[in-house]
Amino acid sequence: MSRGRTRLLRAAVTRLLSSLLVLWAAVTVVFVLSRASGDPVALLLPDDASADQVTQMKQTLGLDRPLPLQYLDFLGGLIHLDLGDSLVYKEPVTSLIIERIPATALLAATALLITVVVSFLAGSIGAMRRGTALDRVVMSGVLVGQSTPAFWVGILLVLLFGVTLRVLPAAGYGTPAHLILPATTLAIFSVAVVSRLLRSSLIEVMGQDHVRTARAKGASEARVLMGHSLRNASMPVITVLGLELGSLLGGAILTEQIFNWPGIGRLTIDAISARDFPLVQGTVVLFAVTFIVVNLLVDLSYAIIDPRVRSHA
Amino acid sequence: MSMTAPPKTTRRTALRLGAAGSLLGAVGLTAGCGSAADSEGTGALRIAQPSEPTGLDPHLESGLDGMNVLINIFDTLTMRDTKNELVPRLATHWEATDEHHWRFRLRKGVTFHNGEPFDARSVKFSIERLIDPDTGSTIVELRSVDHVEIIDDHTVDIVMAEPDPVIPEKVSLFGGVMLPADHFADVGAKGFAAHPIGTGPFRFVSWRKAQLLRLAAYADHWNGRPAFDELHFTAMPNPASALAGIQSDAVDLVSALDPEAALQLEGYKDVSLTTHPGIRMYFVVLDTEHEILKDARVRRALNHAVDVPLLISAVLNDSGREAATIVPREAFGYDPDVKPPKRDPGEARRLLADAGHADGLTLSFTASNKDQLVSQALAGMLEDVGVTLELEILEPGTFAERLASDDPSSLGSMYLTGSTGWTLDGEATMQSYIRSDRKRSRIRSTEADEMIDALEQTIDPDARLKTFRRMQEWLHDEAPFLFLYQADQNFASNKRIEWTPNVNGTLAMETAR
C-alpha cells in the first residue's frame, strides 16, 4: 500500500470516529436537556388526574426508572437504530420520523436548487459587472433578502399570492404548486449568503494570472467565467452550501410552521412542546446525522473539484 | 347539503393555475390536498383546528382536538345537545338504582361501521377497557367505576366503587365512547387505532399525519345519514395559516380561534365569524397561605380592583362573560344569586389600607404566554390601586409542568389559569382548584373540603344544589381566587356551512348542514 493511501485511510477512520463522537455528544446533550426541560406526564394527563394515575402513567412510559438506566437504554437502542416509542403518539419514533422525511427533503432540496440557480446568476452578474448600477441593484436586493426574517417574508408571500391574488395555495402539501411559496421563503436567506460569497470569490479569481492569460488569448467573457473562473471560485461556495443545507433544515422548522408543511420541522416543534423525549431525541439524531453526512460529502466534493486536494489527502 | 353561491375564485382555480404554472404537473401528487377538488361534487366539509389527534384509539386520547375528530366516528352513551341538555345517544334512559349502581338502557338496532351490533357487551368491554390500568388511558373521569354488569342484551349496570352523581354526564364525551368488542378482539389495539370502527355518523377513511384526516358519512347510522358526505380535518397549529386558509377558500371552518386572530377576519367577505358561549373559566389562583394573601381583605381588594367587564371588552374583543366565581353559568349548580364583586378601586384601596398596605405592595404572578395580554392588563389595573405584579410569563409546556408540580411556590403568590369542566357539573373545576390535597389548589380549608366531598358523593340533586349554593357564597366571601371571565368560542366559517356548537365546543358535525 502506498504511503498516500495509508494516509487517506487513516484520515477516513479518524473522520468517522470524530463523526461518531459528535453524534454521541449531540444525543447526550439532548437527552440531558430534554429531561431537564420538564415532565411529559404533566402534559399528557388532564387537570384532575390523581396522584395514583400520575404514578401509573410514569410507570407505563418507563419514566419512573433511574435516569442513568434510561440513558443506557437509549444508547443501546440507538446502536440498533431503535429510538424507542413516542410518548404521545405511542408509535415507534423511527417510523414517525420516516413518514415525515419526504416532505422536508423535498422542501430543502427545492430550496437548495433555487439557492444554487439564483445565486450563481446573481453572483456572476455581480462579479462580471462589478461596480455598475446593475451590480449594486442585484447586491442590494440580495442584502434585503438576507436582512428579512423568514417568518415575515413567508407571511407576506402568503398574503400576496395566497389570499389577495389567490394564484398559489396559502398552506398545505400535495401538489407542486404547494411547494413554491415555502421553498422560496426558505431559499431567500441562503441565496443572499451564497450569491454574495460567490461574487467576491469570483472577483478574486478573475484577478488571477490564469484568467488574465485567458483574456489575453481573446477568450469571451462567458468563456472566461464558465471555463476559467467559476470552478475555482466555487470551492468556498460549496463549503458554505453544505452549511446552508444545515440552515435550510433548521429554517424548515420555521417555514413548515408558517406553511403548515407536514415535515420534520413541525414534528420537532410538536415533540418539544409535548416534552415527547424519545421523539425529540430522534429528530435531533436525524439532524445530527444529516449535518455529519453533508460535511463528509462537502469534503469529498473538494477532491472531485480540486485535484490538488486529492494528492494532498 | 345546503350550499349558497360559492365564492368566485375557488381553491380549484388556484390549484389549476398553480399546477399549470409548474412543469411537473400534478401527477400523482394530489392526494394530500385533493380535498378541495372533490369538495363541490361530494360535499366534503373541510375543518381546520390547531392540532390533530395523537392517535385514533379513543381511550388513549384526552385532548379536545383529538376528541373533535373521534366524536364523529364514535357515539357516546349520552350527549350534550346544542341547547346543552344531556340527552340520550346510545343509551335511551338512565337512572341511579342506588348509590353504587347506575342503570343504562341501550338503544336497539344500532350497528358499528363493520356491521357488528351494538349491545350490552359493547358497553361492558368499552368501559372496562377504559378503566383497566393496562390500557394506559389518560381519561380520568371514570376512576370511581368498579365494573359493568350486563343485565340483559340492552341493559347494563355501571357498578361504582364509590358513589358518583355525575356518571351520566361523564359518559357524554371521552369516557362514554363505545367500541366493538368482537372486532377489537380480532384486530387488537394497534390494528384498531390504525382503522377505528365506531357507531358514529361518520366512518374512518384515511389519515395522512400532519396533512389530512378523512371521514365519510355512515349511511346506516341509527340517527340517519349526516348531511355532509365527508369530513376533512387538517391541523393548522399556526393561526395565520388557518386564517389564510379560510380567506383563500382552502377550509370551510376554523375552530378555536383566539379573539385577536378573529379580529383580523372582520369585514372579510365570504367569511363569517361566529361567537358562541363557552364554558372555559379563567381565574387567578391566589395562594391563601402566602404571607400577604392569607389576609382575605387583600384578596377581596384584588377582586374589587380588577375591572373585568373592561378587560373583556378591551383585551378579549367582547368574547367572554364576566364570572362571579369559578362555576360556569351553564353548569349544574350555578347560582345566579351570587354576583361578581363590585368593581371599585376606591373600595380596593380602603381594604388594602385596612390590611396595612396603604403604601402599596408587590406580588409575584405567573401565567402561560397564551394569556400574556390578559396578564399584562391585570398588572395595569392592579398598579392603579398600588399593587405591583412581578409577571413571570412562561412557555405553555413549562407552565403546565409547574401546575402539576409538588412545589406550590413554583407558580409564585398567584397564577392565571383556565379550566374547562366539560361534564357541565359545577363540581368539575372545584376538585382540582379548591380541595386542599390537590396540586393546583392553594386553599387549605376543611370547610371547603367537606363541601366538595358532599358534592362528589351525594346522588340527590336537591341536596347537591344546596351545597353548591353554600360553596359559591363561600367563594364569594373568602375570595381565594381573582374571578375573571367565562371565555366564548370563536369560529370562522364560509357560507357553505350552517352549524351550532354546544358550550363544550366539540366539533360533532352530525348536525352541520
TrEMBL record, chain A:
Q: Name one Pfam family in it.
A: BPD_transp_1
* Membrane-protein topology: Multi-pass membrane protein
**What sequence ranges are listed for the domain ABC transmembrane type-1?**
101-298
Q: State where the protein is found.
A: Cell membrane
Question: TM spans, by residue?
Answer: 105-128, 149-168, 180-198, 233-254, 284-305
Q: Which domain of life is it from?
A: Bacteria
Main location group: membrane
* Annotated InterPro entries: BPD_transp_1_N, MetI-like, MetI-like_sf
Q: List, alphabetically, the SUPFAM superfamilies matched.
A: MetI-like
Keywords attached to this entry: Cell membrane, Membrane, Transmembrane, Transmembrane helix, Transport
Family stated for the protein in its record? Belongs to the binding-protein-dependent transport system permease family.
- The protein's name is ABC transporter permease
Q: What is the lineage of its organism?
A: Bacteria, Bacillati, Actinomycetota, Actinomycetes, Micrococcales
UniProtKB/TrEMBL annotation, chain B:
Q: Does the keyword rRNA processing apply?
A: no
Which interval of the chain is the signal sequence?
Answer: 1-36
Q: Which keywords, in A-to-Z order, does the entry hold? A: Signal, Transport
- In this chain the Solute-binding protein family domain maps to 85-437
Mind telling me which SUPFAM superfamilies this protein's record contains? Periplasmic binding protein-like II
Is Metal-binding tagged as a keyword? no
Q: Name one Pfam family in it.
A: SBP_bac_5
Coiled coil residues, start to end:
none
Q: Which InterPro entries match?
A: Peptide/Ni-bd (IPR030678), SBP_5 (IPR039424), SBP_5_dom (IPR000914), TAT_signal (IPR006311)
Family under the similarity heading: Belongs to the bacterial solute-binding protein 5 family.
- Identify this protein by name: Solute-binding protein family 5 domain-containing protein
